[in-house]
Amino acid sequence: MSVIHSLQSSPVFFISFCSLIGLVAGSFLNVVIHRLPKMLDREWREQCAELRGETTEALAPYNIVVPRSACPRCGHSISALENIPLVSYAILRGRCSRCRAPISVRYPAVEIITCFFSGVIAWHFGYGFAAFAALGFVWAMIALTFIDYDTQLLPDDITLPLLWGGLLVNLGDGFTDIRSAVIGAVAGYFALWLVYWGYKLITGKEGMGYGDFKLLAVIGAWLGWQMLPLVILFSSIVGAIAGIGLIMITKRGFHVAIPFGPYLAGGGMLALFWGNEINRAYLDLF
Exposed, middle or buried by CB within 10 Å (0-12, 13-18, 19+), for 152? Predict the structure, then answer.
C-alpha cells in the first residue's frame, strides 16, 4: 500500500502525518520568527546608510539558512541531534548542552501549537487540496502572530506572498470563489485603513500599523469578504479583553501599544475552521 493511498484512505494516518509535518514546520517557524525581524533590521540599516552616502563594511551572510543556529550565550553550534523538535528540548531539559543556559520555552511551545493545528486541519478538511492549502495559511498565521508579539511588525515578506497565494488558491474555488476573494482583499485592507485614518484625525495618533491592513486583506483573500465581519468582531473583542487585562496586570497606562496582529490571525483561523457555521447560525437568528 503506497503512502499516498494510506493518506487518502486512513483519516488517522493522515492526521498523524500532518501532525508530524506540523511539528517539523514548527521548528522551522521558530527560525523564521527569530531571524526574519533581524534580517529586516539589517536591511533597513544598510538602506539608511546608503541614503546617507555612507560606506558600510560587508557583513557576514545572515538569513533563514545561514549561519547555523547557536546558543546566544556561548556560541555553541546546535547539532542536528540537538535540534529534533520537542525531543531534544526534553533530553536537554531546556538547557544548552555546553553552558547550560536556559532555552526559551517559546521554542517547544511554537512546535506544539503548530503540531496541534496541523492535526486539526487534517481532521477538519480531510485529505485534499484544501487541507494542504490550509496548512500553509495557518503556519503563516502562527509566524506572524509571534513576530508581531515580539516586534510589532507584520513583515511584507510574509503578508504579500500570502495575499497573492490566497487569490491563487481561490482561482479554483479553494475556500471561496475568486470574486469574493478579490473583494475580500480590497475590503479587508480598506476597512482598517478607514479605522486608522478616522482614529488619527480624531486623536492625532496612529492606532495601528499598515501591516494590520495587509493582514486583514490576506484573510479576505483566503476566506472571502463574508468572513471579514466575524474576524473583525472576534479580534476586536478578544484584543480589548486582553489589552485591558494586560493593563490591569502590568499597571501600565492605556498609551502602551499592543499588537493587533495576533488577534486578527486568531480571528482568521477561527473563520477558516468554523466561519461558515458561525455565519449560518447568526443568520438563522434573523
Answer: middle
CA 205 – CA 198 distance, rounded (Å): 10
Q: Do residues 37 and 147 touch, judged by C-beta distance below 8 A? A: yes
The predicted-structure confidence for 22-59, as pLDDT tens digits, reads as follows 999 999 999 999 999 999 999 888 888 888 888 777 77
Residue tagged 447568526 (cell numbers): 282
The CA distance from 154 to 149, in Å, is 10
- The candidate with the shortest Cα–Cα distance to 90, out of 101, 105, 79, is 105
The Cα 33–Cα 275 span in angstroms is 27
CB 247 within 8 A of CB 254: yes
Give the total residue count for the chain: 286
Which residues, in sequence order, are CB contacts of 194 under 8 Å at separation 6+? none
Q: How far apart are CA 13 and CA 28, in angstroms?
A: 23
